[in-house]
């Protein structure tokens, strides 16, 4: 599945996850590849009969009507698509007493193997989310003598898995034997701390089949001390693909480690996104007439054929996405869908979610 298809699926799931039913009245149906739709329709018709026993009239009506909406949609579809089908139906209105029955459906990007019917207060999207899992991941280790953090990079998502603070004492101003004794105590405490960080890395990474490599970083020489010791399994040390000097530890350190590893992650999605967003922000600061942002401003630039690269936040509605992607296609503009899981992506979202790098200024 290519990046664009993955981002479209992510938006579809996100839109479903925003919807909440007042009771258990939202219908989710998963049809596996090769399964006859007539059997699914028959099953849903039986569920309508069961739903007629629900005591609360409003809930009963919403469930029966949602099932009817799903059944009608399946009849229109006619045959199960090649990869299977996911159908979601229910009252999406936020105003009580003003129902708005909607149906959403999607052929998964890959073969669907499960059959499911569920009526709940939310749509069941977990089977679709499995298609978003990335085949490769990078382990992240940020360490100094005060703090250690273990994380993972998957696609555009950085997740902190474990964090530790140390009991390594600070340097003493005393001299002579006292200074030597404190130095020994610091070394002993540091080694114990490194063991804890290494054990966490071993636990998180050793059986991770999708692990492509490990990035290690931290302030000063401590990270090299950590790698020289036998704190991580040899098999994991062999997977270390980069060691970077950092100014931070903790969650800031994880982000800085990814930022400073762009030479290693050159072909990864997160680096591509960060690079194009950094180009936008640099031009905004130094050549502001070479960029545009804001929905109406970007639309105008697209209509004039001035947009070289269109930047859209992934949190935009499908209708808006389709409109702007069509404008970009008509003006031969490149389109980049930017995730909200990076700092740069969040900045774009806060700016309204529409931005562009221009071919020429628009006044």
Structure in words:
By secondary structure, the chain is of the alpha+beta class. It has three domains: 16-131, 2-Layer Sandwich (Translation, Eukaryotic Peptide Chain Release Factor Subunit 1, Chain A), CATH 3.30.960.10; 137-266, eRF1 domain 2 (Nucleotidyltransferase, domain 5, 2-Layer Sandwich), CATH 3.30.420; 270-358, 2-Layer Sandwich (60s Ribosomal Protein L30, Chain: A). The protein is built from twelve helices and 13 strands. It has helices at residues 3-17, 37-51, 57-77, 126-129, 176-205, 222-228, 234-237, 250-259, 269-286, 295-303, 318-330, 343-350, and strands at 26-31, 85-91, 101-106, 116-120, 137-143, 147-154, 157-165, 211-218, 240-245, 291-293, 307-313, 334-338, 354-358. The protein has a five-stranded mixed β-sheet, sandwiched between helices. It has a four-stranded antiparallel β-sheet with strand order 3-2-1-4, covered by helices on one side. It is globular. The mean pLDDT is 91.
């Amino acid at each position: 599945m290519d990046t664009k298809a993955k981002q479209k699926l992510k938006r579809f799931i996100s839109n479903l996850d925003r919807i909440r039913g007042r009771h258990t009245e939202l219908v989710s149906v998963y049809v596996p590849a090769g399964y006859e739709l007539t059997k699914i329709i028959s099953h849903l018709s039986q569920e309508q009969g069961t739903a007629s026993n629900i005591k609360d009239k409003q809930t009963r009506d919403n469930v029966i009507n949602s099932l009817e909406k799903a059944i009608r949609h399946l009849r229109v579809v006619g045959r199960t698509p090649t990869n299977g089908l996911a159908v979601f139906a229910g009252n999406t209105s936020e105003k009580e007493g003003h129902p708005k029955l909607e149906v959403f459906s999607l052929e998964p990007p890959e073969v669907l193997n499960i059959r499911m019917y569920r009526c709940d207060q939310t749509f069941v999207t977990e089977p679709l989310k499995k298609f978003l899992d990335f085949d490769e991941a990078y382990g992240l280790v940020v360490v100094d003598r005060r703090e250690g953090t273990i994380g993972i990079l998957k696609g555009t998502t950085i997740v902190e898995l474990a964090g530790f603070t140390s009991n390594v004492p600070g340097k003493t101003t005393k001299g002579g034997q006292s200074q030597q004794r404190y130095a020994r105590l610091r070394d002993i405490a540091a080694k114990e701390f490194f063991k804890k960080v290494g054990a966490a890395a071993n636990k998180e990474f050793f059986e991770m089949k999708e692990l492509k490599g490990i990035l290690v970083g931290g302030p000063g020489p401590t990270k090299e001390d950590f790698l020289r010791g036998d704190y991580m399994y040899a098999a994991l040390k062999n997977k270390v693909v980069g060691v970077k000097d950092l100014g931070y530890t903790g969650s800031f350190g994880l982000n800085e480690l990814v930022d400073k590893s762009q030479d290693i992650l050159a072909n990864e999605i997160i680096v591509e996104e960060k690079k194009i967003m950094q180009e936008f922000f640099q031009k905004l600061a130094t050549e502001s007439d070479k960029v545009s942002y804001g929905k109406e401003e970007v639309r105008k630039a697209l209509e004039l054929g001035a947009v070289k690269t269109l930047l859209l936040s992934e949190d935009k509605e499908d209708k808006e996405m389709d409109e702007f992607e069509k404008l970009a296609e008509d003006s031969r503009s490149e389109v980049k869908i930017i995730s909200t899981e990076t700092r740069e992506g969040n900045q774009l979202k806060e700016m309204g979610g529409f931005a562009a790098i221009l071919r020429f200024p628009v006044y």
